[in-house]
Structures are given as structure tokens and as C-alpha cells.
Amino acid sequence: MSSIYAQITISGKVVSIEGVLPGAHLWKKSNYKINDVTDANGFFRISGLKQGDTIICSFIGFKEYSFKVDASKDNMLIEMQSFSQQLEIVEVKASVLGAENFAFEKIKPLDIYKNPNSKADALVAITTQMSSTTKDENAAVAFRGASPQQTGYFLNGVPVKNPVKYAQLTNTGTLSIFNTDFLKSATVFPGNPPIECGQATSGTVVLELADRFPEYWQHTASISMANVGYSSRGQVGEKSHLGLFANYQFDGVLKNVNSVNFQDINSFNALEGGILFTTHQSWGSVKFYQYGLNDSYNFNFEHPSYQDGFLQDSERSLTTLQWIQNFGYWQASIVAGNSFNKKQFQFGNMNYHTSNTDPYAATNLTYSNQGDVFKSGYAYWGQNSWIVGSVPTLNYALAPDHPSVKIDMDDHLESHELYVYGRKKWRNQAFGSGVRTAFMPESNKQLWSYQFNYLLDITQNLKIKAGHGKYYQTRIDTERQIIQQAQTSLDLDFKGKRWAIHQSFFRNHGDSAITGSESRVSIFLRRNFQLDQSTSFYNQEGEWEWFARTFIKYNPLTDWTLNASFQAFKGNTYRLVNSTIYLSDLDVYAPTERSSIQLFSPYANISIGASKLFQFSNKLNGLIFINVSNVFDFKNENSITYDFDYSAYDHNLLTRRSLYAGIIFNFVND
């Protein structure tokens, strides 16, 4: 037989100027079923080819690459060209994060989509990291035993408070207000938050949206048991880019399929949409983002004095505007934004709404050259809160005819902040330090933060990070709060060819005191198996807490991914009501004495999932997925519900066994 008809196998590696490209898709032009997807190290292998076949290599954000099969050429190196490399006239200005070298992890959209437990949501992906100690199955990130409220979130340089939906209480669908399709990166600081991003006392999540989209238009449509969504993004003219998205979250299918898990949820829905516009001109780069959300959640709430549906409604708007200009090694930037949130709560004799607006503006000047960074700036942050309606007079009498009190109050808090931060790189070491101060005119109060960081690259595979700092945070919830916290941490990273180890020790002290350690081991066997095991231990106010997480990913066949996860942590605490007094005028029982602190059983959750990547053509591909949460239906206790006189009680449970599935289509028109 002539060699031209012999079967050929080719292999190689796909890279870009930024490094390897995991998840790049290669397929035979005349038969898309003959294909492969690059692994975590960018490697691929395709069999069943013949001399002269055309292979297409594709990766979102990069120019499509094609080549002819040649039996004499194996172990190929394919260098993909980013669309950004084609913009020769105008350089795109990207925001410089001074403390980036000291971050715990930088997550890109591909990392989120490939994470079997993220549900394609940026914040949920972060809650699966070892530093997260989130205990309530939602997207609000808690780091290293601290309160979720102490975590700082920044989107395009603008602070965002409470970035989760009510509909996320179902633990399905898109949980946070951030759209992963538009995300450029999420930089995670679980401790020692960067001085340049103030107002965080535990950890910080810095999210940056895309600076540009491909020159062709890319469309994504998703359909699942609780969600339909669509996004479109591409280039407008030679120097501008536009992205649009809409998403609707609904309850019907999910409730019918998982009736036991959702038996206490009457309804939930969320409608959201957004627009992202960027332009890159000689006078600078501008990025504008507008987001809107209408969110509703109604669940059965049982209280000894009254049982009915508890209604929560929310309207939300988020606006960010960013301008960046480079002058050689210097960069000037201005960011501005506003967050508006209106919430309605209704149950029994409770009926009130809260409104919050948080205008923000900042200017920054940055010097960056070969790892050395100097950054300084000014920021203004206004926090405005209004509460209007009626609330129960007594917390044990919640029926509609029980006494309530009218409330009509507002509070305002503003701060003017200055900071300076510097980072110096010297051979295999980097030093960083900074100071930040805030002046609050209403109270004539001055607050201070400071920070020291150190990075040592002992070898190419071994790194040590150390940090210490003191931080402040101002908030308006039901009342004004000023939280102050100091943190010290030591992190070690050791990477081998097929394994990686991370060990961290930390201490947080101030308004609360937490001391602990975190350990993670990752193992990569061949190209198709990954095991990630992490454990956390910390002591808070004399009580030991622990977390354990295991993630397994296996690729049995090309385009197929199987995954399993196990999470466990120490149960929450509670106090039982020991005695009551009957109030005849209200016909209710009032608790008078509670027991000592008791523990719920430890939390445990084993989930499994599968996904299949499919390719219809070089312009249409997609992903179908299915996930079963809490496979063994562990009864994870979360709270207590009493009967009318507190003589008996039931344990309320978190997510029961539930099935979630969907499909995502990606298509382009060039």
C-alpha cells in the first residue's frame, strides 16, 4: 500500500506568547470527529490521519491556525497569534496591579469553565479554593475563617459590596453578579489584601473584565434546568470592542425534577443583563460596563409564632468606567462607578425595604519597569443607606397582627483615601510595602493601613511568600461599622513535573483572632487524570475549625470529562431554647433561657459530574454537562425550627441530592 494512505498520528504542543494554551481545540477539517483538546500543559495527540490532511487549531481570542499533516513532522510546536498582536497602531492599556506578585492565585475564564464545581461562575470557583472557608453553599467568599463581609471585591478598579443574587440561595445556575464570558482574570488575595485596593480586612478578589474581544463576532447560548442565557461579543471598527449579555434564571424545571430538595422553595427567578464597551485610542483606553439585575426569592419560613412564605426582592445596578493611558514606564488611570441596590423584605408583620448607593472615584499613577512598581493614588468612596417600612417589635412575635414599629432612617458615610505602594525586584527576590489612610469628615476620624510583602524564588519550582499588614474597613449595614484587623502569613509553593504542593500558615488578629494553616497537594497522572486534595485548620476564639476538599478529574476519551468532588467541614454551632414564658395577650411563647453551645454534625458533600465537548464545524462547538450534587443525600444541618411552644424542634437542611444539567453553544461569524 502506498505510504500516502497509511495512518498517521501527530502530536505536539500549542503555545502563545503568554505560555501554553490548555483547552485549545484541534480537528481534521474534513471530519471534525477526529480531534483532540490540549491538556493542562498544552499537549495534544491525534490519530487516524493521512498525509496531506488539513488540521485546524482554534482557541478563543486567537487567530485560527491551520496546517497540513506531514508524516515526517511530529512533536510539533504550534504558536498561536492573539488578535491583540494585530493591533500595531494603538497599544492596549491594561491596568497594573502593584501587589500582583504576592497574590495567591490568578484565575482565568478557562480555569473557571474547566472547574467541575464552579457552575461557570467566577466567585463559586473561588469558593472551591483551599483558602475559602465558606459554610453556607453560596457565592459569598469567606477567607481563612473570617466573615464574608470582610472580603473585598473590586471590578475594574471599583469596589462592589455583596456581589451575589437571592436566586443563588438555591445553589444552582449563575450565582454571582459577574459574567464569566466577559471576564479577563480574577486575582485572589486570601490574606494581606493589597493596599491599593483598600476597604478589605480579610481577603480581596480583584476582577478585571476583558480589554478586547476577537475581530470576529462570537456568540454563546446556554440552556439548563434553571437558566437560559445569551451573550455576543466582538470588534466594532478597528479600535473598539462591544459585548452584550442577558440571562434569565427560573424555577419550574429544577423544582419538578428535584422536588425533595426544593420542597420549601415557593419560587425564585432572576433577570439580568449587561453591556461592556472598550475603545483603545491614542489618548488612552476606556472601558465602560453597565449591569442590571431584577431578583426574587420566596421560601417557606416556619417560626413558632407564624408560618408563611418569606419574600425577598432586589433591584440592582452597577456601573464602572475606567480610563488608562501609558507614558513610557508610567501609567495614569481614572476609575469611577456607582452601585445601586434596592431590597424588599416581606413576612408577617415585617415589611420594609432598604436602598443603598455607593459612588466611587479614584485616580492612580503607576511606574512599572522590569518587575519594579511604584503606585500612588487618591480615592473617594461614598456609602448611602436608607431603610423604610415596618419591623417586628418583638423578635419572637412575627404574625401579621403582632406589634410592629415603623422605621424611616438613613445614614451616610464617606471617606477620602490616599495611598502609596512600592515593589522592588532584585534578582530572585521581590519586596513590597505600602501605606493607606482614610479621612471620614462626618466623624472627623482618621484610619491607617500598612503592608509589607516578600517573595523569594529559591528555585524555578520553589517559591516562598511572606506578608504582614494592618487593615481597616468601613461599612453601613443596620449601623455604621469600622473593622480593623492585622494579618501575618507565610506561603510556600513547590511544583514538580506531575505534582504541586502548597503550604500556608497565617494569623489574623484584631476585632477577631484566627490562627491556622492550609495545605494542598495536586497530582497529575499522564494527560487524563488530576487529583487535588486540600485541608485547612484554624483556631478561632479557642475553637478549632477544619475544612477538607478533594477534586478528581478524569478524561477517559477525547472530549469527555468526568469529575468528582468531596467537601467536608466542622458543623456550625447552635443553642437550644430551654425555657419559655407564655404571653396571653399576644398568644405566643417567648424564649427565656438557652442551652450551652452545641454542634451540628460535620458537613459532607460528594458530587459527581460529566461533560462532553462537541464540534459541529469550525464555527460551531459546544459543551453538554450533567452534575449530581450530594450524591449520597447527606443530611447537612444548618439551623433549627421550633414548634409553637418550643417544646420540639426540627433540623433544617442544606442542599439535598439534586440533578442539574445543561448545554452551551458557541458559534462565530467572521
Automatic annotation (TrEMBL):
GO molecular function, one term: carboxypeptidase activity
Keyword line: Carboxypeptidase, Hydrolase, Protease
Residue span, TonB-dependent receptor plug domain: 121-203
SUPFAM superfamilies given in the database record: Carboxypeptidase regulatory domain-like, Porins
A Pfam family reported for this protein in Swiss-Prot or TrEMBL: CarbopepD_reg_2
Organism from which the protein derives: Marivirga arenosa
Protein name (database record): Carboxypeptidase-like regulatory domain-containing protein
